[in-house]
What does this fold into?
Amino acid sequence: MVPCLNQPLLNLQDEASISLSSSNRDMSIYDRTMMNVEHSRDKLNSYLNKEDFPRILEKCLLNAKEYYQMDHDEELYLAMRRLYTESMGESSIMINHEISRHRPIVSSFYKAAENIQIISPNLIDGIKTDLQNSGGYAKLLVDIDCCWLDEIREILDDMTLDVVHNRSARVIINDWRILSKTKLIQILCRNKNLRYIADNYLKCRSLINMVSVWKTDYQPRNGHDMNGDAMNFHFDCDHNRFLKVFIYLDDVTANHGPHVFVEKTSAKYRNSLPESLNRDGRYSSLEVINAGLVPKIVTGKKGTIIFADTQNLHRGTPVHFGATRYILQLQFVDSAFGARPAHKAEDIEDMNTILLEAAS
Ligand SMILES: O=C(O)CCC(=O)C(=O)O
It folds into this structure.
């Protein structure tokens, strides 16, 4: 059976997304839910006949420990990327649906008041609403000890001396031996409220599979590798679904290369994107604007947190002369399967010790 790719898959867990036709408006929530189960199962069955989909689904359902014992499969990863654009995001929603059955959210993370704050429990509902309303973005300024932010900036500044810039304006550190010693990263990886937000958005027990920090300096336009530095619009598709947590380690004004995104361009909105944007790769700002989309610029004070579903179109921006942007990134994924891991398996385990504790 050929799947109908233009109809978004109804999302079982998100009551708000269940659209009510006149015929089902009077149904009970139970009846509507059961109807949607049938609907999703039919779609899933049709997808299971698609080339590569069953193998991709199987890999996505592995838990991290099982997954990291296997060799990386680049071909299957690229097949997942292709399927994402071909299905206009629907494959990702369907796989996430199955993952959420396999690895349901651990309730002990819910709004943990005893947690070192950073995200106080009373902010959580607002963040969830913003994520939902924008298709996966929320920004807030939180009270983080300045010393924790500065510790990472100093490490980045020290590194700069050793780095040959080439055509990149960025210096990136993702060495877990260095990062795991910093106070802020230790706290973030163990922060239950952050984990709660990610789990809730990803509808499953999520995994941190990448932590990195980088510094962006001014680079003359001529010869700057804007694609390599992620400064042209793109959507991330390294994993089935993810939520990145960016933290500005210093003030970011329009001169400091702020993050830019286009809301409601993530998986569940892809089928309403213009055909010209339905491809993997990079897009110029002109292409995005000509398609009628309106990019949003995220400036912010030191300590600003941005929750970002970077399956939305997004980019960094060039930094002006005399300015520098410092940023930290934590990546939560619904499944370890995807691009070649940026860290060793034991380091990823270390980033997620909180999961082991919750299971014991
Ligand atoms: O530097 C930025 O603000 C964008 C980073 C980015 O494109 C990414 O993490 O995928």
Observations:
- The first strand starts at residue 137 and ends at 141.
- The longest helix spans residues 29-48.
- The CA atoms of residues 262 and 293 lie 7 Å apart.
